[in-house]
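Hi all, long-time lurker, first post. I run a small reading group and we've been trying to get comfortable going from sequence to structure in the token notation. Rather than ask abstract questions, I figured I'd post a concrete chain and ask someone more experienced to write out its structure so we can walk through it together at our next meeting. Sequence below, copied exactly:
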Amino acid sequence: MKRKTLDRIGLLFVALVMISPVVLFFLWMISLSLKYEIDNGSYPPIFIPERFAWTNYLKVFEENNFFLYLWNSVLVTGAATLLALLIGVPAGYGIARLKAEKSAMVIMIARMTPGLSFLIPLFLLFQWLNLLGTLMPQIIIHLVVTVPIVVWIMIGYFETTPMELEEAASIDGATPWQIFRLVALPIAKPGIVVAFILSVIFSWNNFVFGIVLASRETRTLPVAVYNMLSFEQVSWGPLAAAALIVTLPVLILTVFAQRQIVAGLTAGAVK
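-- Answer (accepted) --
Happy to help. Here is the structure in token form:
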């Protein structure tokens, strides 16, 4: 019992050390967003100001077209995620059932390859097609990120589903498409939820693709926050407020879906 208690204390200590910098930076960003510029530039630093500058959040929407950028992010992330699920779920099922290990390795390599490797040739292609400055190139290039995630998660998940149910359906006369739609998909719902959540997170937070391919009217939220920086002066309060606004949807999604993420990844990892 004493050994188990020490192990638990040690584990909690390691977890605290690992997450404390992240928590500290997040709390400091909240502090910056609620302070006036005179407090943000003071020394020694002030963590909790005497007066909260709620106007920083109003400035984000008054001085920038943030509702447009929010809509752009929703469109790009939503379209890229839905297309990734339409492509990735059947692909993961096919690779898992055919035991195509080489195809799985290709998917893993595509997931590990930096996005900049795809960005330059695709930029030239979109320029030739006269699509630069629209949302379509961003949706297409986000598939480079989301499709490998969905396929890799679904391969691991479909490999754990019992083949006996599909064999029974086949004996009863079900076609391969009916087996996939009526047997495999309902069982794989937790894996699909995990793939959906992770695709949303990775697509929503993507910055590099948007800054290269987007115009002023088609920027996504991460690019909009970056464009709030200027050489003359950096207003830390509105900048921190904008960063929190961008982070909030993904943070809420992660908090509410953390159990599904852990359960889905664990189920897909048990062979």
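A couple of things your group might point at:
Residues 92 and 98 are 10 Å apart (CA to CA).
The mean pLDDT is 77.
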